[in-house]
Amino acid sequence: MHKLHTDFWTGNSRANIDVLTGEEISSGKDYIKLAATKRAIGNFVSIVTGKSFPVIYNSGNDSYTDGRSVVISSKVDDGNFDSTVGLALHEGSHCALTDFTLLERVKSDCIDACTDGINWQEQFHEIKDILNYVEDRRIDFFIYSTAPGYKAYYKAMYKKYFEANIITKALKSDDKREVTRENYMFRIINLTNTATDLDALPGLREIWEVLDLRNISRLKSSNDAYRVAKLIDAIITRELDKVAVEEEQDDTSGGEEANGSDESQDGEQGNSPTGNSEDAGTGADTDSDGDLNDDGTTAEGDEAKESTGSKELNELTDKQTRQLERAIEKQNDFMDGSINKTKLSKKDHSRVNAISEADVRLNNVGKDVYPGFSNSRYNAKGVDCVVIGNVTESLIESGTYSSLFYACGVKRYRECVDNGTVLGTMLGRKLQVRNEDTTLKTTRLRNGKIDKRLISSLGYGAEAVFSRLDVDTCKPVLLHLSIDASGSMSGEEWEQAQTAAVAIAKAASMVSNMDVVISYRSTDSVSGQFTPVIAIAYDSRKDKFNKISRILPHIACTGTTPEGLCFESIMDEILKVGNDTDTYFINFSDGMPGFSNSTYYYSGRPAVEHTKRQVDKMKSAGIKVLGYYISRYTNGLGADSLINFKKMYGKDAEQIDPTHITSLAKTLNKRFATK
Prior knowledge:
Layout: H1 7-10, H2 30-49, E1 55-57, E2 70-72, H3 81-97, H4 102-113, H5 120-146, H6 151-162, H7 165-172, H8 181-189, H9 204-211, H10 222-253, H11 255-269, H12 318-336, H13 346-357, E3 360-365, E4 383-388, H14 393-398, H15 411-431, E5 438-445, E6 449-450, E7 466-472, E8 477-484, H16 492-509, E9 514-526, E10 529-539, H17 546-551, H18 563-569, H19 571-574, E11 582-589, E12 595-596, E13 601-602, H20 604-620, E14 624-630, H21 639-649, E15 654-656, H22 661-673
Parallel strand pairs: 1-2, 4-10, 8-9, 8-11, 11-14, 14-15
Antiparallel strand pairs: 3-4, 5-7, 6-7, 9-10, 12-13
Helix pairs in contact: 2-3, 2-13, 3-5, 3-6, 4-5, 5-8, 5-10, 9-10, 10-11, 15-16, 15-22, 16-22, 18-20, 20-21
């Protein structure tokens, strides 16, 4: 199996492993994978170039690097990830190192140099093609010299575009040996191929020496590359002019005598199209496995390889000729920066961008959950939980998670936000005391700081003239409200839970040392596969309170309850809070944990025990966990269910009536207002 160079970073060795995150890939996660790929390649480009360039997918016409962005194909998978990274790095290097204004100077030079009757545009494109090649070699050296750890990605890129079997066959064949500018360009851009023959065309060896890939680091700028490109163009033009003169002589003096002269001249110069020169060589060599050298070239040794010598050159078949034409077109597109990139539809492009902005990712969880029946391997691979790190309006509008979000919003849910805001404003006024420091000054002490007002008593033998100032400051508080968004919560339970969450968030927004995070746990169907989802809808540490009114009315409750799985998926983030903050994890739920799809089963005692393990992790880290079971029924859960609920959340877990949740908000705020 092909082993990705990305495996070095992730430790992957299986085809079903995400090359970016090390997570197992499930069907239907394409949008998340595309967004993750975009972020990963963006990081690669930023690390290598030291600059930040946007990485975008091609959603319209084929695109190219213009110095401001890097365009990648939307068809990124395990088979082409390395070459795509290599291409992104290559284009990113252009953004960082290439002077894109130079082309205007090239154009001006071509116009000035062209006499009447000569097409300056044709000359411009000819020298631009050469400049592209020289500039590519210059900037590729930059990567090799500054970030050698990324050489493998470049190797994958060049293998894809410049080491096709048909290119190697053509270089060894009798094809592309006629003196034409097209053939020169083919031979030049393939100088680093092991099959290169520097005597295939007159002047090609001289071009190799002018290019001097072994010393490519001497080119410090795009302008330096331009000077080399002009020298190469001059050599090609000289050889083309020779052929033109010879053809003109043939027309005037007859064919036989001129042909004899041509054969003699070719024999003397060693430029025979069949490669019969004794000192002929291919110039650019690679090591046995095709590895690129540390200087950014594939040439090995200072001397060119021996050419095909007296070996008979093969002819390409008609099929191979057609294959060669397609391969050359592909190379030319690469050189011109117009590689055909698989396109995304506008809808897909919108979804990928929305997922990227919302920090959506997959976390594999629940590998330690025994399913509770004979097939113990059923849950061995765990399950992917979708983590939405930042719910945005664009994500809601994209329709990517239609079970969790209502694009149009719900009127009565908006009323919950309004009611919660009013209630929270009243509660917030009571919490203002947390912003105030309590100061206690104790005087007439025998040690401490001298009290200026008592200095005068020193003359009367007083010794207790010192004071001490004690300042009592409230410790910062972080509340994480985790709300069950399963279908059974719909109705009064949901509306009251939303009202209470908004009230607590509003109250906290009115004081300086209290933050609130609101997350929702549910499930959604992604390409037919049922998946746990946890969405961070609000985080006062980075969001303004008005985000609540834009987001919460769109949140639906239609899924099941993958409780512990969702907790595990964000456990690292929950535990990040420092010891200087009082952290509370508050759970609102109306049922026991439960979830299943075609590959994973989560229910009953195994699910309860798994959820308890996640709660215990929080408690061990000093987080105070409060569990509230919401039920509209006066007879409650039943003895067994209540026992299980308390087993998960501790002896302080309570069952509450949904009509009293707003009162709960007041109780919690009273608790947090205590000094």
